[in-house]
Automatic annotation (TrEMBL):
Gene Ontology BP terms: L-phenylalanine catabolic process; tyrosine metabolic process
One Pfam entry name: HgmA_C
EC number of this enzyme: 1.13.11.5
Enzyme class: oxidoreductase
Domain Homogentisate 1,2-dioxygenase C-terminal: 278-364
Species classification: Bacteria, Bacillati, Actinomycetota, Actinomycetes, Propionibacteriales
Gene Ontology cellular component annotations, sorted alphabetically: cytoplasm
Domain of life: Bacteria
Ranges of residues in domain Homogentisate 1,2-dioxygenase N-terminal: 112-252
Protein's name in the database: Homogentisate 1,2-dioxygenase
Length: 409
């Protein structure tokens, strides 16, 4: 995100000496993307950022994934998912592939351990709750409706002020605004649905003293995703100043300006972020199509190249009436399967002028698999709701062996 900021104490020129009042030399650290070829920030530290005194295994929660086979659309009820209370260690994997993982957690009010994701950026949507995220760059407050974007390898911890429902999108890449919304120098353009005023980073530096401080690090090996518990000689929050274009920030969906049209607009107009092989969109309260013969709900569409994940977080989602989906639901519509509104929703939407709905969508260009958290809260009847009947109606059974209820109304 090429939007320059500077906080705290800095030398007049980069890579030159900066000392405290006693003559102590601060250590300069470059935190940069793509091997010195993309966004970066320079941090000035009291301690040595590479000084570790111990390294132990951190056993991650279950990261196993199950393919969506046999192929079918899925409905996952996240509000039925039991999670740990820790904003980091309590996350349960819902869906994932080798590009992105989606996890969910309902926190308590205790702070998380210090944490660093060394695999990729994180974009955490705050469904409910409030608090702050303490980082090496400073403190970032969060509230309901925020996307909290944390760059790869940023030491941070979550400090909830109240119980918070967090929907964590963990990338294997960087996450940034869509390129089509940016000038060649990185400014958000006039046709973008948000601008730099809507992005909120730290306002001041945040220093904490300490020795032998543990940091939980999520990283990759040839065996997959693993965790390490590193102990640092001094506290990672020892930054006295920094400047650059790489830092954590929040963006709230209230500040997103939906793009609408005379007829139904396709999902890319709702895009807010993108990463490698996936995009993030949000569908928000908005005026809908104003052609006299418009059909406001989506047309049926086949995701030839992608899987579509919708997380329903507010309002009344018109296209899904009669499907069993409600607030806190996830729908997974996989590539190779046409999907769209429930049959009765089409006629019911005619003449509607405004949709009061909120949902966060992740589209991936590689198939998504079910995590253990997703498997635990699946609605086995969802796949058959367009037809109104399924295998249980002809003597078969649902995935969990129980009865299914089907509806297309």
């Amino acid at each position: 995100m090429a939007y320059y900021r500077a906080l705290g104490r800095l030398p007049r020129q980069r890579h030159t000496q900066l000392r405290d009042d006693d003559g102590h030399l601060f250590r300069e650290e470059l935190m940069g993307e793509e091997g010195f070829s993309s966004d970066s920030s320079l941090l000035y530290r009291r301690g040595v950022p590479s000084a570790i005194t111990d390294s132990q295994v951190w056993e991650l929660p279950d990261q196993s994934r199950t393919p969506n086979h046999p192929l079918k659309p899925r409905h996952l009820r996240l509000h039925d998912l039991d999670t740990g209370a820790c904003p980091v260690e309590g996350r349960r994997l819902v869906l994932g592939n080798n590009d992105v993982r989606i996890a969910y957690v309902v926190t308590g009010t205790d702070p998380s351990p210090l944490y660093r994701n060394a695999i990729g950026d994180e974009c955490v949507f705050v469904e409910t709750g409030s608090g702050v995220v303490e980082t090496v760059f400073g403190v970032v407050p969060y509230r309901a409706g925020d996307y909290v974007v944390v760059p790869r390898a940023t030491d941070h911890r979550w400090v909830p002020a109240e119980a918070s429902r967090l929907y964590a999108i963990e990338a294997n890449s960087h996450i940034h605004p869509p390129k089509r919304y940016l000038s060649k120098y990185g400014q958000l353009l006039e046709h973008a649905p948000y601008c730099e005023r809507d992005l909120h980073g730290p306002d001041e530096t945040f220093e904490v003293e300490g020795t032998d401080v543990e940091v939980l690090v999520k990283h990759r090996t040839s065996a997959g995703i693993v965790g390490t518990r590193l102990t640092y000689a001094t506290h990672p929050f020892d930054v006295v100043g920094w400047d650059g274009c790489l830092y954590p920030y929040t963006f709230n969906i209230e500040d997103y300006m939906p793009i609408t049209g005379k007829v139904h607009q396709p999902p890319p107009v709702h895009q807010v972020f993108e990463g490698w092989n996936f995009v993030v969109c949000n569908f928000l309260p908005r005026k809908v199509d104003y052609h006299e013969l418009a059909i406001p709900v989506p047309y049926y569409h086949s995701n030839v190249d992608s899987d579509e994940v919708m997380f329903y977080v507010g309002g009344d989602y018109e296209a899904r009436k009669g499907s069993g989906i409600g607030i806190g639901s996830i729908s997974l519509h996989p590539g190779g399967h046409a999907h769209g509104p429930q049959p009765s929703a089409i006629e019911a939407s005619l003449g509607v002028q405004y949709f009061e709905e909120s949902a966060v969508m992740v589209d991936t260009f590689a198939p998504l698999e079910l995590g253990e958290g997703g498997r635990a809260v699946e609605d086995p009847a969802y796949a058959w709701t367009w037809a109104g009947r399924g295998p249980a109606a002809s003597g078969g059974s649902t995935d969990d062996g129980g009865p299914a209820v089907y509806s297309n109304s």
